[in-house]
Amino acid sequence: MATWLFEGWPDDEALETMTLAEELGVTTMTDVLRFKDRASLGDHFRGDLQVMQTSYDQLEDFVLALAESLDDPSENLSPESLDGH
To answer: What is the pLDDT of residues 8-42, one digit of tens each?
Structure first.
């Protein structure tokens, strides 16, 4: 849980809750932003949502690489060490 404060939009504070749930070996991430009202949502998500999807895809790549690195503890893994990211 975290509070978002958007620079340039001081009244657009939002509470973010991220939940990870595992079922049958599959982890699902749910990320919810709760604004105080619809007006506060403003233009934050009116655009190319592909940018957000790309970020989640990169997170997935990192988590998978991290899981693989557990098999080889000598591997130094960081987000910067992933090709193309």
So the answer is: 777 788 898 999 899 998 888 898 988 888 877 77
Nearest partner of 61 among 85, 37, 29, judged by Cα: 85
Domain of residue 85 covers 47-85
SS3 call for 61? helix
The reply to whether 42 and 52 lie within a common domain is no
Total number of domains in the chain? 2
Secondary structure E strands in 7-55: 9-23, 26-35
